[in-house]
């Protein structure tokens, strides 16, 4: 069955044999229309390529904006809810209150540096990735002792822990563009 014949049969509402499924005919119709629109023969038909690229600068900028907001708000939380943060510091970490305030300064400073000093994005990205890995034991401890944190809930605590590697990857990806993101 030729393409033109198949398309004519579909337009009349019948004539489809078991060897010619509807999806195949519809796809051929779409190809035929594109070929007509571009005025080229079937053999040398060139269709426009997709313009979406996963490495698009807009996506990097969006990810970088998320990272900046995450660390700026998180760092602010270290000062607004200091006692809550101190309560989740593992026992083996000395000077819990100082560490909470220090990491809050690091988070806010890191977020500001990403915005104000684009030339330092790559090293600041590595610093924020290291900080994220360093606080993972506190998040793991919270998830394992979830009954102490009913306001967050078991699911929320485990989702946050599962988000840690995603966050590290986002930091790496958004800051490894060599300062090209706006």
Keywords for this entry:
182 residues, mainly alpha, 8 helices
Explain how this protein is built.
- The structure is a single chain.
- This protein is 68% helix and 0% strand.
- The chain is an all-alpha fold and 182 residues long.
- It is globular and about 70 Å long.
- The N and C termini lie far apart (55 Å).
- The model has no long low-confidence stretch (mean pLDDT 80).
What structural category characterises the helix and strand content? mainly alpha
Strand fraction:
under 5%
Mean pLDDT: 80
End-to-end Cα distance? 55 Å
Number of helices: 8
Q: What is the number of E strands?
A: 0
Which helices and strands, and how do they pair?
Layout: H1 3-12, H2 22-38, H3 57-80, H4 82-88, H5 96-116, H6 121-134, H7 136-144, H8 154-175
Helix pairs in contact: 1-2, 3-5, 3-8, 4-5, 5-6, 6-8, 7-8
Brief sketch in words of this structure:
This protein has 182 residues and is mainly alpha-helical.
């Amino acid at each position: 069955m030729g393409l033109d014949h198949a398309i004519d049969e579909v337009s009349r509402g019948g004539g489809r044999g078991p060897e010619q499924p509807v999806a195949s005919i519809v796809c051929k119709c779409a190809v035929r229309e594109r070929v007509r629109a571009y005025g080229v023969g079937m053999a040398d038909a060139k269709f426009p390529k997709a313009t979406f690229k996963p490495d698009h600068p807009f996506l990097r900028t969006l990810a970088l904006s998320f990272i900046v907001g995450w660390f700026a708000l998180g760092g602010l939380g270290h000062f607004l809810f200091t006692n809550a943060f101190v309560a989740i510091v593992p026992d083996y970490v000395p000077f819990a209150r100082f560490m909470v305030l220090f990491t809050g300064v690091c988070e806010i400073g890191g977020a500001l540096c990403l915005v104000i000093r684009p030339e330092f994005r790559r090293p600041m990205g590595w610093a924020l990735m290291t900080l994220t890995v360093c606080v993972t034991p506190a998040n793991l401890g919270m998830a394992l002792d979830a009954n102490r944190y009913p306001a967050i809930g078991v699911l929320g605590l485990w989702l946050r822990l599962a988000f840690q590697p995603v966050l590290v990857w986002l930091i790496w990806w958004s800051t490894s563009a060599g300062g090209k993101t706006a």
